[in-house]
Structure formats: C-alpha cells, structure tokens
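Researcher: Before we compare anything, I want clean individual predictions. No alignment, no superposition, just each chain on its own. First chain goes here; please echo the sequence and then give the structure tokens.
Model: Echoing the first chain and its structure:
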Amino acid sequence: MELKDLHIFVTLAKEQNTTKTAEVLNYVQSNITARIKKLEKEFQTDLFFRQPRGMTLTPKGRQLLQYAEQILALVDETTLALIDDEMPHGTLRIGTNETTASSRLPNLLVDYSKNYPDVELSLRVGTTKVLLDDIFNYQLDGAFMVGPVEHPELVTTEIFTEELVLYSSSPITPGDVQHKTLLTRPYDLYRERLETWMTEEEIYPRRIMEFNTIESILNCVNAGLGFSIAPISLVDSHRFDRPVSFYDIPEPHSHIQIIFVHRKDMHVDSALKKFISMAEQLSD
C-alpha cells in the first residue's frame, strides 16, 4: 500500500466520480481506476459500489476512509513538525460559527495575513457539530465555537465573552415579545438561551420565522419584520437603515464564551501558535 494510493482513494471518496478525481489530481482516469483496483485486491474487498451515476463507499470503504484520513494527516503533521521554524508558513485551516465570522474575525484575518503572508489561510463556516466533525476528521486545524466543549481528545482556549441582547427596529422589552415575531435560525444556540429565559418568564413571541443565515435575519429586523437575539458585537457591526433598540437579557442567560478548539494529538506549528496568540487578543 502506497500513500499515493490512499490519497487517490480519499479524493475519490469525496468526489464519487473517477473523471472528477482524475481532474482534481491531474491524473489520467485509467490510473485512478487501476490504483483503486490495486487497493481492493490488496485488502481483498470491494471499497466502492459502482453505479451509473458514480461511486459510493461500501462499509469496508468507509472503514478504510477513517484510517486513510488519519494516516495522511499524520504524514502531513510529521512533515510540518520536522521542517517547522519560527516563521509561520504552509496552510492553516480555520473553522468558525457564522456569528464570529461576521463580527470578530475579519480584522483578525486581515492582521494575520499581513503579518504572516507565507501562510495560506482558509476559513470554513459551520455549526458546532460540523466544525467538531471536521476537527476530528483532520479537515480543520482548529475552530472557534461556543463553549463549553469538553472532550479528552481536544484542547480548548477561551478567547472572549459575548453579551447577548434582543434587538429590534422598534422598542423591545419583555412585554413586547408576545406581540412580535421572533426571527431565528434552526438549531441556533442563541435561540436556546432565549427560549430558556422566555420559559422562565412565561413570555412567548407571537410567531417564529426561521432563516438560513444571520445576514437575512439582520436585514429583516432592519425592515421591521420582527426581533431577534445575537451578540451585541454582531449587531453593532451591522449597518442598519434605522435606529435599533436593544434589551439586555438578564443573567445567567446573557453571556456566552467563545473558545478555540484543536486536537490534542496534533502538532501545533508556528502558524497555529501565532494565530491562537492573536485570537486571544480579541478580548482586549
């Protein structure tokens, strides 16, 4: 078994098509097919279901994918550990939730890119579950998310604390909530905080409307459609066409901790060290 074969296998598992895989890796298609057949012969099992519209992993293929991703990640990590020096370089794959990406991260990313131009920085936005899956599968070097997150394989660093507020283009108090529409997202952690508080206070919005993005919610609040909940840093960073009213949610529901998470077993190279160090300054 060669590392090149595993790389082809992982890419094919992602692309699910030999033609696309050949294009991505700049190989001829026959070479892709031959390498996969070589692996299947070596492991004495089919790794893919062959279908007219593409290829999908068999149960044994999914099992191999987990190991292959770990092996390739370890090879990359070993290379970085041996050639790493004090000047950051290489690639750095960062994940974040949508709120942090919209409010706190832009300046950090700009400053980091200016200070360390030899680092190829990429950003992926997702939910906590998606980000954690990507970290465990070696698809991200680290990610910002709402804490706490406790896992024996993870290292967490507290970055900053966010204050949650209700906001609306018209006056907003607990008494106004029952006459307004709550604008939110499915599986929103801020919404969970809000619903816990509203249940305690026995107040409920007139109706709930769900959106896929925070930007849509901000624009609809601006248009007067309803109210929402978000960190005050996000609301302050958005340009509204009209004055916006705030209501400070009482403790213990009003504050959330944003943390940075990475794998405990990974080599923390100079690029990631510098990034975490600069991220910690976001609380200043």
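Researcher: Okay. Second chain, same rules.
Model: Second chain and its structure:
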Amino acid sequence: MTDDDEALATALLIEGFPAKPADIWAAFFRRLRILGTNGPADVPFGYLMDTAGITTGVMMTPATLRDRPDGSKGTVINLSSWYVQPPERWRAGRMLQAVLKKHDAMFTDLTPTDEVRAMLPAFGFEAINAGVVVSLLPVAAVLPAGGARVRSMLPGDAALPDATRTILEAHVRAGCLAFVLEGDGPAMPLLFRKRTLKGVPAAKLIYCPDLARFQAALPAVARGLMTSGVGVLISDDTSAPLRTGQLKRSRGLKFVRSGAGFAPVPNVTDHTASELALLDL
C-alpha cells in the first residue's frame, strides 16, 4: 500500500466495517503519520489484495521497531482492520500468509473476529490473555494506595528514559494519555487510549512494563485517570487476582506470533503502535 492507495483502502474499510463511523479511517491514517513508526520499521501502512486486477481485500499493518533483550532492534507488526470481500474470502488465508512472509517480525492481532480467531493458531499465533478486566475507577479510587501516586507525563519528562519518553510523546500527539507512576519503585510510564463503554467515559491500557506493580497501585491509577474524566478502565486479563471494583469479561482475546527475536513477555502490556493505540474502538 502506498499513499496513492489510501482512498481505495478507505473505501474497502468503510465497506468492511459499516458499524464504524466513516471518518474513523481518515483519523487512523492521520495518526499513523503522526506516530511515524512504520517508516523506520520499513513496513507500509497496510496491504491490499487484488483479484484479476480488482482490489478485493485490505489489511492495515501499524508497525514499530522495539529493542530486543540483547539491545538490538527488531520489528513488531500489528495486523489490523482486515477485510476481504465475501466472494474472495476463501483467499483470506493466502493473504495472511503472504503478509507474514513479507517481514521478519513478531506479529500481533489484537481485535480478531471469531472467524479470524479460529484460523490464527494454524499460522503460529497464540493467545496472550484470557479476556479483559474492567475496573470501576470510582470504586478503586477509595482504596488505600500505599506510597503510590500517579501524575501526567510532562513534556521532556526527565523521570523516564529518553527512548521510552519519545515513543510515549508520539502516542500523546496521536491522542493517547500518558502518566507516570511514582513511589514504591522507580518512575514507571503508563499509556492509555480514551474511549466510551456503553456511554461511560473509559480508557484502555496500552502500555505498562510491570502489571503486578500496576495492579498494586490501582487506587492511585484510578485517581489519576479520573482527573482526565475517565470512569472505567479496560485492561488485559492475565489471571492476576482481582481487586475491589474489578470484574472479568471473557472477550477481547489478543494473539501474538513470535518472531524476530521477540516473544510475549509475562507481566507486561505493550500495545504501542497498534490499532488499540490509534483507533477509537
């Protein structure tokens, strides 16, 4: 997909996801450009599938470079907003296989449909969560927070490593909320994307490098998010014990295919440079 293909891709996305507002896709492309991570990763914004000269499928591919454990960099690609027109849907597996062969990368699929979810294990994907946890922030906020406190990330925030701050600042420019958890340990970055849940202002957890510490500091996190008008938090269910004000829901399964020296890391949420960070889902 090139810049010249954006209108064609948008038309297919509107056709494939009629329940979503049409302007969500223009915002998606705009935020991908603001984020600016696909270029350094040498991955296009997406791929189109042609059948006999007619474009019949689209798959968006937000991507980024991340540090491997040895300090080198590798590619992580999010497979997003995948649509194939019904008469050609039997070719969907071929389209997926073609994209997987294009790049040496770890691939994620964070919002698969039931049909896609059924086919992912055959392509080497594994589930990384058991569903989602919904946290009712006004309830969590009244619990003791110990020494934990949460504040908004500042421009040029000296408490965070340069590389972490840079990627979080790019996400803030793309519409995310960035906070810093302090106390009971070194400063820890947190990233969220606002949304609504049944009409209630909510947020999704996009990035957290230590979920155990996050869960322990939930009251402080709740207070910080409530200052931004958020009443409900949605995060991945990683089977940690629930706290007061939290409940589990068996939906929102997310999948990863390891590669390029990357594999899912327990106790970490990292959905940066993905549809969850860029789309108002």
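Researcher: What stands out in the second chain?
Model: The chain has two domains: 3-127, 132-251. Additionally, Residues 101 and 193 are 31 Å apart (CA to CA).
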